[in-house]
Amino acid sequence: MSTTYRSTVAVGVAAAALVLTGCSGEGKPAAEGTKAPTAPTSPVPLSPTPTPSAPPGLEGSWAGITDGKPVGLSIGKRHAVVIAGAQICQGKLADPVTLRLSCTDATTKRTEGTIESNDGKTLVVAWKGGPKDTLKEADPGPGPSASGAVRLP
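Now predict its structure.
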């Protein structure tokens, strides 16, 4: 595998992890002139509503090359992120075989995808009006180093 491909997949997996874990700007001080949020006036349920999961064997990170460009797909708790070249799309698993995403640019090549096959090692996604991605399960690698940086093999 080329270093460029590994770097692209690593960046894609890291970005997907941030999106899938719900990383947001919460906890930052309110901007000047804005009110801080107030506590809700209605009671909040004590037990959280369970988040539905993706079908078995679908959650995780997938990587491949389509039309000569690296493609990364991460799915977790029915949320999905695709990074294909410079295109970044995110959204949800609408049902066990349909991905509905919105992209950061104006293209619609990867906004509605159908999972054609998944054997746990290879995932094939056909995008309506776009390409067909054949992706392999991404190797999570050795994990973060002591400094928190991801090490590339």
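Helices lie at 3-20.
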